[in-house]
Amino acid sequence: MGSWFRDTFAALAERNFRILWTGSLLAFIAFFMSTVVQSVVAFDLSGNNRAVGFVVFAQGIAQLALGPLGGALADRLSKKTVILACQTTIFSAFVALGLLVATDVITIGYLAGGSFVIGVAFSFLGPSRQAFMLELVDGDRRGNAVALSQVALNASRIVAPLVAGAMLAVGFLGAAGAFLGMGVLYVGAIVCTIVLPPSRTPSGTSRSVLGDIASGLAYVRDHARLRRLVLSYVLVIMFGFTYVTLLPGLVENELHRDAKSITLLLGVNAVGGLGASIGVASRADSRHARTIYTVMCLIFGLSLLAQGFAPSYAFLAVAMFFGGLGAGGFQTLNGAIVSHITEPEYFGRVVSLTFLAFAASSIFALPVGFLADAIGERPTIWITGSIVTAATAMFWLLERAAESDSVPVPAAATAGD
């Protein structure tokens, strides 16, 4: 037990990583509170899935457009400075939305505008935070550090829906309090960032920012294993994570429960994700990581199909638990494997490509919302679940084919085996 505990939480032995991890936890709680609150407020204002999808779409389009730029700047600028600037921007957006709700002038347009601003900030924040994290830990703990970051994310997915649900229970003033509470959490994240040491001075480059983006894309293109990991991750997230957009309509239109009841479902989902993240953290630097990654992707895809068939709220909760289990496992291991097979000078750009998966999912939420309004939430979830399952099978077949053909792997890739 003692050995397992040390292996699972090894990176937290380093002080600076603990501080960054704490700040990340606070920021993650705020983010997942916003996911719940924005979806519920949008659905209550409009009564349809399109509005929820539009608000999510606004954040996604910002991240998709600026994500590669954020990755390039993470490899060129002071990571700590970028993180602080983005955290301050997100804090301001949450406070502004809280005041709009409190004064009862909130609209779908304002929600989408705030979502867009937050998406812009996340485009630069995510790659810089991930790259900064790897500066703060020893090389042999990289995978574990990435895994523990995912543990913080999934822990926040348990806490955030409970807090958001408690605030939403008192109506729109509750939503205002939730937004302002998110701002307070970001103050804590900002303080954690301030006390960290300066990030390393990036090495100089003669290329333009666009040249750096192009070189990052070429780097992924020329590394077969990295290319497969990034592509599979993008496909699974892009199609699979749209279920969050459909949850309010599914529970209200199909299961005849109040839309606010999604907070319990998201909490159950997060419990599964947290358990998976902790469970695989000790294996994140092992040669078994790729196999576990594939199994977790498959569990996630099958759970989506089960959600579409759910005859009751209780059945849906069980399916959501396994969805969290699969999602938590494959997200954790994807980041861990990528951290090992990517050279440090390219890490910000490569991570930004994996973050594009969430941007694509947010953008895809809009057509998914229209589709759900046209054919129903259940058939729409079946379609996305089928795509995720097929993408997982294709990734597994390509990996097996590569192994049987003995395709040479770049020297940097052997660290993750």
Structural description of this entry:
- The chain is mainly alpha-helical and 417 residues long.
- The protein has a single domain, classed as Up-down Bundle (Growth Hormone, Chain: A).
- 81% of the residues lie in helices and 0% in strands.
- The protein is built from 15 helices and no strands.
- It has helices at 2-8, 15-46, 49-74, 79-102, 108-135, 142-168, 172-194, 209-221, 224-240, 243-254, 262-281, 289-309, 313-341, 347-375, 377-404.
- Helix 6 runs antiparallel to helix 11 (262-281), helix 9 (224-240) runs antiparallel to helix 13 and helix 9 packs antiparallel against helix 15 (377-404).
- The longest helix has 32 residues, at 15-46.
- It is globular.
- Mean pLDDT is 81; it is low at 406-417.
In the CATH classification, which architecture applies?
Up-down Bundle
Count of discrete domains: 1
Shape: globular
Binned strand content:
under 5%
Residue-averaged pLDDT: 81
Figure out the total of helices: 15
Query: What is the helix/strand order?
Result: HHHHHHHHHHHHHHH
The largest pleated sheet is described as: none
Unreliable residue runs: 406-417
CATH class value: Mainly Alpha
Helix content: over 70%
* CATH fold-type name: Growth Hormone, Chain: A
- Total E-strand runs: 0
